[in-house]
Fold these 2 entries.
Entry 1:
Amino acid sequence: MMDCIFCKIIKGDIPSSKVYENEYVYAFRDINPQAPVHILVVPKEHISSVDEITAENSAIVAKIFEAIPEIAKSEKLSGGYRVISNCGADACQSVKHLHFHILGGAQLGEQMG
Ligand code: AMP
Ligand code: ZN
């Protein structure tokens, strides 16, 4: 996707603070952190949102969720963390490349909506 900011980050065309990478998955620090640790985990393949996940591409979700506990361990999130994916306008998704927020490093609030 030519004009996708996360595709550009994955390619290295836009700088990012990388915390994890493998063949399928890239993870970097959110530029506007909402918690002491705020990391975005994205597939290298462009998928617009959770709403675009199908039987054909869902294996990437497993790859992402295999990476998340590894990232949590390296970030020392032993007290716990939250994983969120905003999907579509009602959820205020601002970047149209599938991503999972990892939030942690402090006691988080109970409210999510
Ligand atoms: P969402 O609102 O769920 O689509 O989340 C998009 C996230 O991407 C926001 O938390 C932004 O702060 C973050 N973001 C946008 N541009 C960048 C960037 N260049 N580097 C790191 N994080 C970014
Ligand atoms: Zn993209």
Entry 2:
Amino acid sequence: MNKTAIYPGSFDPITKGHLDVIRRASSLVDELVIGVLANSAKPPLFSTEERVALIKEAVKDMENVKVESFSGLTVDFARMKNAKFLVRGLRAVTDFEYELQIAQTNHKINGELDTIFFTTSVEYSYLSSSIVKEIASYKGDVSPFVTENVKNALEKKF
Ligand code: ADP
């Protein structure tokens, strides 16, 4: 049986914290599909196509990782991909309540879908796409937090 998991998110842009989760999750399954959410509540800095391209470049060495965009419900994307697992990262207690609510709702809608949480590596526990964008907007050095291609893309945006 092919074990597929999806890792949905905004990835605006992808950070080393996301990549850490991707690396660990991809070792557990046959295929990990990163789902870039096109219909997020707040307008993203990078377009959907840009976010997909940046992730593809960052994961190009990981053979069982695919990148796609999707809109609509995550559970429907999971169904489309035949995925039984949904991957999310937990950074701090503040993530927990929100993530638990979503995981339980998704499980209620699709009883075959289980959410797997990866606790963040300590070195990235403070890291978020928003913080990276803020640093980049003030011309700070983002190289500890993102890959080279993302750093270059951020420099072009600001
Ligand atoms: P969303 O808007 O869906 O929260 P994000 O791109 O912000 O999208 O995050 C996608 C997933 O990655 C979430 O589960 C989030 O908790 C996780 N994540 C974000 N940053 C980190 C990090 N530094 N370490 C581990 N997981 C993270």
